[in-house]
Amino acid sequence: MNKSDLIDAMSASAGITKAAAKLALESFLGNVEGTLQKGGRVSLVGFGSWSVSNRAARDGRNPQTGKTIKIAAKNVVKFKAGAELEGSVNK
User: Which UniProt keywords apply (predicted)?
Assistant: First the structure.
C-alpha cells in the first residue's frame, strides 16, 4: 500500500473526502517527523512507537575492493510494533 492507496482507504473507512484524508495523513506524518526531529518519541498504544537512536561512527568495508572506509555517526529512526499489531500479524 502506498500513500495514495492509504488516503483512499482512510477516506472510504472514515466517510470523509479524499482531500480531508490527505490533510489528516499529512498532518499526522508532519507531527511524527517534528517530534522525532526534536529527539522525542511517538507512541500509539497497541500499534507501536517511533523513537530516535544515535548510531555511532564505525569502520566498514567496501565490498568491491575490501578497503576499510569510515562510516559517519548518524541518527536513525526506530519503530517497535505494539503487542496488538504484532498479534494481528501473527494469527
Answer: DNA condensation, DNA-binding
- Contact between 48 and 85 under an 8 Å Cβ cutoff? The reply is yes
User: Is the separation of the CB atoms in 11 and 17 below 8 Å?
Assistant: yes
**What are the residues facing 44 on neighbouring strands?**
48
Contact in structure between 54 and 75 (CB atoms under 8 Å): yes
Helix axis angle for 18-37 and 3-14, nearest 10°, is 120
Burial group, residue 25, by CB count within 10 angstroms (0-12, 13-18, 19+):
middle
Which CATH superfamily hosts domain 48-90?
IHF-like DNA-binding proteins (4.10.520.10)
| Low-confidence stretches of the chain (pLDDT beneath 70) | none
